[in-house]
Amino acid sequence: MSSHDLDTSELLPPYACAIVCHRPYEDFYICITLMRKKLVARWHVFLLTILVLTSAGLPHAAVASLHVATTVAPLTDMVQQVGGDLLHVHGLVPEGVNSHTFQPAPGDVQYLAQADLVVLNGLHLEIPIEKLVQSSGKPGVTVVKLGEHTVSQAEWVFDASFPKAQGLPNPHLWLNVDYAMHYVTLIRDHVSALDRDHAAMYHHNAASYLTQLAHLDHCITAAMRTLEPHQRKLLTYHDSWPYFARRYGLTIVGVVQPANFSEPSPREVARLIDQLRREKVPAVFGSEVFPSKVLHKIASEAGVRYVTTLRDDVLPGAPGETDHSYMGMMRHNVTTMLEALGGTPATFATCLQEPATR
Ligand SMILES: [Zn+2]
């Protein structure tokens, strides 16, 4: 077969190769070449078709590449809401553990050693974890302290459990949904900067989540107005609520837990009982993480209701359930407060069921 024959045979359909394949060796080689050329051409057309289809809007295959380490469960949930399946997320602080005194275990080093991004609340909540990141973190790791980029130092709250003399402000910013929304924008911007290929997806997820958070914020504000002014008082065991109270118009009338997370002295207990009677606070609130016999005693002697189930960093329900989320935790907390203080939980529930279009 001459080279001229070869050129013209390329115009033949693929089965034409079978005709020449039983010829001597050099023809067989030519035959294989022809088939390969046709197959490669068809493969290119196939790939091109796939590319066109995917660029036309079909979903990309998501491959998680970025490793993110977080601390308390509400922050972990926020990162997962923004990242979806695109991130490997590990929350270091187990639920039900005192996050203020949490010491990372030796096994946590593996998560920090591979984390491209470490998301902290900051305001000194996670000092032992910060030290471990410095000693064992991945070279070049990005560390973001959400709280410190959400409020200025002038907006920090110091109080009985977080006294200014110790220089450690109250860190519970995330219980104010407006601040939580700022946390989400910071998370979105950091993961987008580190994983530009998926930035559009992170922005899409964050926009949807922020819409829901804005609606939750609106519903909490409206729900708290169902309380009479004299009912808008919080006395809690753990001191988690000053930023929530500032946002939603409540007053913190007291906290039980001293700065060292021990139980209060008998003198302090007597003072709290007097305060509850004087201010006619309808209920006192314990915490899932800090069950307290002392608070039970204070409530019974003051003749007020004792509610044990407020949560500041423990999510309700089991993993995988809708309520096992930051938003679920806030729905639970607000409903609990409304029931105990004399508000209208039904108003809150109705608001939440309205479409989140804000
Ligand atoms: Zn706390």
Provide an overview of this structure.
The chain is α/β, with parallel strands linked by helices and about 350 residues long. The protein has helices at about 5-10, 15-20, 25-55, 75-85, 110-115, 125-135, 175-195, 200-225, 240-250, 265-280, 295-300, 325-340, 345-355, and strands spanning about 65-70, 85-90, 115-120, 140-145, 235, 250-255, 285, 305-310. The strands form three sheets. It has a four-stranded parallel beta sheet. Helix 9 (about 240-250) links the parallel strand 5 (about 235) and strand 6. Helix 4 crosses helix 7. The longest helix is centred in the first third of the chain and has 31 residues, at about 25-55. It is globular, with a radius of gyration of 30 Å. The model is unreliable at about 1-40 and about 45-60 (pLDDT under 50). The site of zinc ion has 7 residues, from loops.
Strand order, largest beta sheet: 2-1-3-4
What does the main sheet amount to? 4 strands, parallel
Low-confidence stretches: 1-41, 43-59
Instruction: Tally the helices.
Output: 13
Backbone CA Rg: 30 Å
Strand content: 5-15%
Shape: globular
- Measured as a percent range, the helix fraction is 40-55%
Write out key terms for the chains shown:
two-stranded parallel ribbon, alpha/beta, globular, disordered N terminus, 358 residues, binds zinc ion, four-stranded parallel sheet, 13 helices
Write the layout of secondary structure elements.
Blueprint (H helix, E strand, L loop, with lengths): L2 H7 L6 H5 L4 H31 L10 E5 L2 H11 L3 E5 L17 H6 L2 E4 L6 H10 L5 E4 L31 H18 L4 H26 L8 E4 L5 H7 L2 E5 L10 H14 L3 E5 L5 H10 L2 E6 L15 H16 L3 H9 L5
Parallel strand pairs: 1-2, 1-3, 3-4, 5-6, 7-8
Bound molecules: zinc ion.
The site of zinc ion has 7 residues, from loops.
